[in-house]
Design the sequence.
C-alpha cells in the first residue's frame, strides 16, 4: 500500500484552504427581502431582556408569553407553524410540515432491531426501560444496539380496545431511545391532513401527531448511512431526562395519554 | 466605514449591537444581520444539501427561525455559529426530504457529476481536475465531516465557533477535524496526490 504517497493532513488542509475561495457554489440569493417579509407578517415581540435575565420568575413568564404568541402565530400561518415545528422539537426528533406528503408503501419493514427478552434489552441500553402499566408486559421486545445509547421497541399485538395499525401490523408500538445523544435520529414529515400539536406529556415537552399517516425517517450514523422510512400512525412523542418516548397506535389522544401516564 | 460592515462577516461588536436591536423588535437591524450572513448561511446550507434551491430554502427558513428564537439567544454569545447551527439543521431537514425522492447512490453520482462539471475556465486543466476530484469526494462524505472541514478550512471558523456551530464540546473539535481529514483521504482516489504546483499527479 503506497500510503506514504498519500497526502498528509497538512497537505490536505492546504489543498482545502486553496479550494475554499474557488469552491463552485451557486450564486448567493438575496434572502433579506423574503426574510423581512415573513417576520414583518408575523411579528413576535422579542423578549426585553434587561431585567428578565436577572429574575427567573419574570423570565419564565416572558418565555410563557413567547410560547403563547408563537402558538397563536402557528394557528394563523402555516409557514410560521413549520418554523416553530422545527424549533421546539423534542430532542431526537425533528418534525416538519410538508405539502404534499410523498407517498410511501405502508408496509415497509419496521427495522426494530433484534428480538430479545426484556432483561437482555435492559442490559443493552443506557437508560431504564419504561413499561406502561396500562398495557403491561409487551408481546415482543426488540433492541437495536447500533443506535447510540441503544433503542428499545415494545410491541403489543391488537386486542379488544386496541385496534390493528396497518402501518405497523401491531396494536401499539412503543419506542424509547436517548434523544439527547442523537438529535436527528427521527425525522417526521407531516402532510396537510395530519394534526400536529405541541403538547405536554407528564409535564415534559412533546408532540401529538394524528390524522392521516405521516412519514418517519430513522437516521443512524450520519446522513449518508442507514436511512429507513415508513408511514406512521397516530403518535405521541415526548422527552424526559434525555430519553425520547414514542407511542404509535390508532388510539385517540386520550387513550395515548393514558398509556403515556405509566411512563416517565 | 459603516457602509463596509455588510461585506465583513463576524465582527462581534457589530453583531452584538445588531442582535440586541433585533431582540427588541428592530426589523431593520435583523435585516442587516441577514445581509451580512446570507452568503455564509447559503454556503453552509449548500455544503449539506448540494442543491441550490434546497440551500436557499434552508437558509431562509433558518433566518426566520433564528429571528423568532432571538428571545432565547444567550446575550453576548456570538451570532455566527449559533446561526450556522440552525442553518445546518434546516439543511439536514431538506436533505432528508431529498433522500426520500432520490436513491442514495443516484444522489452521490449526481454530486460527483456536478463536481466534475464545476466551471473554472481560468485555471489550468490539471488544477481543475484536482479541485473537481476534491469537490466530488467532499460531496460523498458524511455531512458532519464536510461541515467541519468547511467551517475550518473554507470559512476559517475558530475552534470555539466550530464547537458552537456543530453543537459539540470544544475539546472534541480537533479530533473530529482530524477524523474528517482521514475519511476524506480514504475517499480520495488511490493515486490522488499533490504535485509540486499543487496539482494532481496521476
Sequence:
Amino acid at each position: 500500500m503506497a500510503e506514504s504517497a498519500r497526502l498528509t493532513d497538512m497537505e490536505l488542509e492546504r489543498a482545502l484552504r486553496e479550494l475554499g475561495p474557488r469552491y463552485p457554489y451557486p450564486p448567493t440569493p438575496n434572502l433579506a427581502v423574503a426574510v423581512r417579509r415573513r417576520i414583518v407578517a408575523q411579528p413576535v415581540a422579542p423578549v426585553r431582556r434587561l431585567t428578565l435575565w436577572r429574575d427567573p420568575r419574570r423570565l419564565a413568564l416572558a418565555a410563557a408569553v413567547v410560547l403563547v404568541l408563537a402558538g397563536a402565530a402557528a394557528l394563523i400561518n402555516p409557514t410560521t407553524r413549520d418554523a416553530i415545528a422545527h424549533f421546539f422539537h423534542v430532542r431526537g426528533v425533528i418534525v416538519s410540515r410538508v405539502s404534499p406528503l410523498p407517498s410511501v408503501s405502508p408496509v415497509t419493514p419496521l427495522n426494530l432491531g433484534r428480538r430479545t427478552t426484556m432483561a437482555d434489552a435492559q442490559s443493552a441500553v443506557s437508560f431504564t426501560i419504561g413499561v406502561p402499566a396500562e398495557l403491561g408486559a409487551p408481546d415482543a421486545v426488540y433492541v437495536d444496539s447500533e443506535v447510540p445509547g441503544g433503542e428499545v421497541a415494545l410491541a403489543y399485538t391488537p386486542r379488544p380496545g386496541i385496534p390493528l395499525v396497518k402501518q405497523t401490523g401491531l396494536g401499539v408500538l412503543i419506542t424509547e431511545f436517548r434523544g439527547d445523544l442523537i438529535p436527528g435520529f427521527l425525522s417526521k414529515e407531516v402532510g396537510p391532513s395530519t394534526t400536529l400539536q405541541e403538547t405536554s406529556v407528564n409535564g415534559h415537552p412533546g408532540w401529538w401527531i394524528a390524522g392521516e399517516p405521516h412519514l418517519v425517517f430513522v437516521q443512524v450514523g450520519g446522513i449518508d448511512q442507514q436511512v429507513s422510512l415508513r408511514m406512521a400512525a397516530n403518535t405521541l412523542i415526548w422527552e424526559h431526562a434525555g430519553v425520547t418516548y414514542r407511542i404509535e397506535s390508532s388510539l385517540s389522544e386520550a387513550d395515548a395519554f393514558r398509556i403515556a401516564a405509566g411512563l416517565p | 466605514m459603516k457602509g463596509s460592515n455588510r461585506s465583513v462577516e463576524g465582527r462581534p461588536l457589530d453583531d452584538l449591537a445588531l442582535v440586541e436591536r433585533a431582540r427588541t423588535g428592530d426589523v431593520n437591524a435583523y435585516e442587516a444581520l441577514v445581509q451580512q450572513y446570507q452568503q455564509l448561511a447559503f454556503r453552509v446550507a449548500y455544503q449539506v444539501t448540494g442543491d441550490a434551491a434546497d440551500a436557499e430554502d434552508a437558509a431562509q427558513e433558518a433566518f426566520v427561525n433564528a429571528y423568532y428564537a432571538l428571545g432565547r439567544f444567550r446575550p453576548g454569545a456570538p451570532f455566527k455559529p449559533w446561526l450556522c447551527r440552525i442553518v445546518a439543521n434546516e439543511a439536514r431537514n431538506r436533505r432528508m426530504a431529498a433522500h426520500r425522492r432520490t436513491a442514495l447512490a443516484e444522489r452521490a453520482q449526481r454530486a460527483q457529476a456536478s463536481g466534475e462539471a464545476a466551471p473554472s475556465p481560468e485555471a489550468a486543466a490539471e488544477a481543475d481536475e484536482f479541485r473537481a476530484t476534491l469537490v466530488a469526494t467532499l460531496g460523498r462524505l458524511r455531512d458532519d465531516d464536510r461541515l467541519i472541514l468547511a467551517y475550518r478550512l473554507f470559512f476559517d471558523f475558530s475552534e470555539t465557533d466550530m464547537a458552537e456551530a456543530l453543537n459539540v464540546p470544544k475539546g472534541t473539535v480537533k479530533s473530529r477535524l482530524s477524523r474528517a481529514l482521514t475519511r476524506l483521504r480514504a475517499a480520495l482516489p488511490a493515486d490522488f496526490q499533490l504535485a509540486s504546483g499543487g496539482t494532481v499527479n496521476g
Observations:
- Chain A has a mean pLDDT of 74.
- Helices of chain A lie at 9-19, 32-41, 56-76, 78-87, 118-124, 253-260.
